[in-house]
Design goal:
With 269 residues, the protein is an alpha+beta fold. It is built from seven helices and ten strands. The strands form three sheets. A four-stranded antiparallel sheet has the order 1-6-7-5. Strands 2-3-4-8 form a four-stranded antiparallel sheet. It has a two-stranded antiparallel sheet with strand order 9-10. The radius of gyration is 20 Å and the shape is elongated. The protein binds a DNA duplex (12 and 12 nucleotides) through helix 6.
DNA sequence: TCGATCCTGTAG
DNA sequence: CTACAGGATCGA
């Protein structure tokens, strides 16, 4: 489920529930999620650590440990990370769990198991942060910055928006939603989108992500896991064949970079 | 830039 | 049964 808004909601909740907690035992249940590192080594290095902080960068969750190591979690398609009140009451489909000294546990739930878990030293952490693109909800993500990035890319603008090394955190849903709101054809090369549309796109990205963060925080606020995103309903995503909310033309679905793109052939040009 | 791949679940 | 899934990476 997670793009930036959902990852932000998860991170805030994990921060609230786990900062200060002492881990007494760690278990990696799917060996491949720590590749290329050995899961046993990761477990051993985490045990006895205290969680010092929780941050989000793009779609990445970074849990700071008191030793200076960083636990890097990526939820990919179906991951979720949350604290449960009793470590013995595991949900199903866990990729990993971390038992606290107070009996609670931080669990990494993931039905598809594509999510990853890695331990970063200070240098690896810096590299990770340096490699990520602009935070779309930060000051650095200005209209000018977006224009400069777009000018340098000949990719279709939808794929450009999803490139995590340029802008960090947009995924398939919110990229499509932002392009709809800004009336841009997703197939158009990023460098060929007009300055006026790019300006509009910048506003749409920020507005849509801020709204979605709010919705996601509500959706994830219940104890345990998450619920359907209440409040946020996409205008184009997953609405193939339905009428455009702006011009009533039938929305269509195409494939870009192996993923579905939904858009309105009438008002996105 | 395309397609396959990592997995499991669900909808049609 | 097939197609597809809110992600990312790899090789052709």
């Amino acid at each position: 489920m997670p793009e930036l808004p959902e990852v932000e909601a998860v991170t805030r909740k994990v921060r609230r529930d786990s900062v200060g907690a002492r881990i007494v035992e760690a278990a990696v249940l799917r060996a491949r999620i720590t590749l290329p590192d050995d899961p046993r080594v990761v477990e051993a290095r985490i045990a006895a650590e205290r969680i010092a902080g929780a941050e989000r960068r793009g779609k990445n969750i970074l849990l700071g440990l008191e030793s200076g190591l960083t636990l890097h979690v990526h939820l990919r398609m179906t991951g979720n990370l949350f604290v449960i009140p009793d470590w013995r009451l595991h949900p199903h489909r866990l990729s990993a769990w971390f038992r606290f000294d107070d009996g609670r546990a931080l669990v990494f739930e993931d039905s598809r198991g594509l999510g990853t878990l890695r331990l970063l030293d200070q240098q690896a952490r810096r590299n990770m942060l340096a490699g990520a693109g602009l935070e779309p909800l930060s000051k650095a993500f200005s209209p000018q910055a977006l224009s400069a990035l777009a000018a340098a890319s000949r990719q279709p603008v939808k794929l450009f928006l999803m490139d995590q090394s340029k802008i960090a955190g947009l995924g398939n849903i919110y990229a499509a939603e932002a392009l709809f709101e800004a009336r841009i054809d997703p197939r158009k090369a990023a460098c060929s989108v007009s300055p006026a549309k790019l300006k509009s796109l910048h506003g749409s990205i920020v507005r849509i992500l801020k709204d979605a963060v709010k919705s996601a925080c509500i959706a994830y606020s219940r104890p345990g896991g998450f619920r359907e995103a209440e409040g946020y309903s996409p205008a184009v995503y997953d609405r193939e064949g339905e009428p455009c909310l702006r011009c009533r033309r039938t929305l269509i679905r195409i494939t870009q970079g192996g993923r579905s793109t939904y858009y309105c052939p009438g008002c996105q040009r």
